[in-house]
Input
Amino acid sequence: MLRTLWRLSRGSRLRPWRSPYLRWRIETFSGLHADQITFRDFWVFVWRRRRDLARYLKWASTEGRPAEGRNPYRFPSDPHP
Output
């Protein structure tokens, strides 16, 4: 999960409330306008939604990796393993 959080906050790791991606995610989830999200708004949202955010990070960390034993660059109809 921490690897996913690190990847998602790229470019704004020390100031995550300034990350365009994280602002966009907050906007789509809560309805707050991304341009109006302040330091306080960001941390209030994170604190109130910490369980949802943990669940999302857990899901995102499993979605980013291919299934074990599968080659992500091979088509299922490929005859060679």
Observations:
- The two ends are 30 Å apart (CA to CA).
- The chain has a mean pLDDT of 80.
- The helical segments are 2-8, 20-30, 39-48, 50-63.
- The longest helix spans residues 50-63.
